[in-house]
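Encode chain A's predicted structure.
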Amino acid sequence: MKIGLVVHGPEIVDSGYALKILKFLERYGTVKARLGGTIGRTAVIDANLEDKIDISQKLFPSQSVDKFNKEGCDVIFLINYGKSSVTGHAFGYKVYNNSKDQPPVIQMERPGEPDGSVVPWRDDLAPLAAEIAMKTGLKLVSPEDIRNTLFSNDPCQATGQTICRKIAGVSPGENIFVNGMVIGKSTSSEVTIKAENGIITQIIGGTLKEHGVEKLGPVDLGKAIVKTGLLRKSRVKPRILKSEKLNTKYTIAYLNHAAEDVYKLKNADLVVTVGDDTTLVAADILYRFNVPIIGITDGDIDKVVEEGHKTEDSLIIEFESGWDDLVGEEIFSQLFNRQKTIETENIENFKSKLLQIISNITSQYQVKYS
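Encoded structure for chain A:
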């Protein structure tokens, strides 16, 4: 049997269950695993599993499912470790409905918990799912039960140019992410996001973060990746990958959106990041590749990971509220000539020019050294 394994999220990797399930499924046939999502890539690197779980592409979970389906897999396992069975099942529902051609998907959710479950998202997979559930000690849950429990009154329907999306399993006080960008915070356990003409306009049961919405821009809310809470909860020892750069020139990159593919910058020598969330996420990822950052921030930070890291020689430059985008735009224009990457023969000279540009704009800032 040809088996595809879609690994989603850092927790399933950090817990050790991604590797356990991969080895378990090898009893049934040939298994090929790839990641679905972004933050899980860091967990795969920390666990030294790049040779077993393909992280070479940035793919949404449904895209990974579709890719395996096109490759002719007999069954595709979607494994996830949500913060609750509610969020996990809601995730599986969205992934399956965003996939094409009714793929043969079995979900394994929260395998280390008492409410861990196996869900056959296609009817003909029920016998195999029942066998897997029995052998792993997980509960068998039907898609019908999930639909009836979570989505019988799903408001995610298009009405003209307005789309609503109900978010399951939310706790008050959690960050709300859309495609990796914090767009608000929950104030209730009942949260619905509304968008008009692709722009998020309201969070029912939460407060909207206008700056995050502005940075996110237009989005297909029905298909977007929506998360709440922390992007990564586990406290782990980061794995630093060795670099053998022998540069005569140095590559410096510019990043102003946390939802962009930070991993594309792993070979840079320095990255300038704009915004608190972007700086926190990028610094933590690039730490694995020994890439320092210069973070342009204004103190409006949301806790998006349990524990963040920064490479030695990184700088955090903090301004008064609302100034980070303005300063970032000037740096992008004057130093980068509006190019995402530039080369320099002297990084210290680049830093001096950057600080001079900042000083010409305002004297109200603080520099924090790593």
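Residues 69 and 103 are 6 Å apart (CA to CA).
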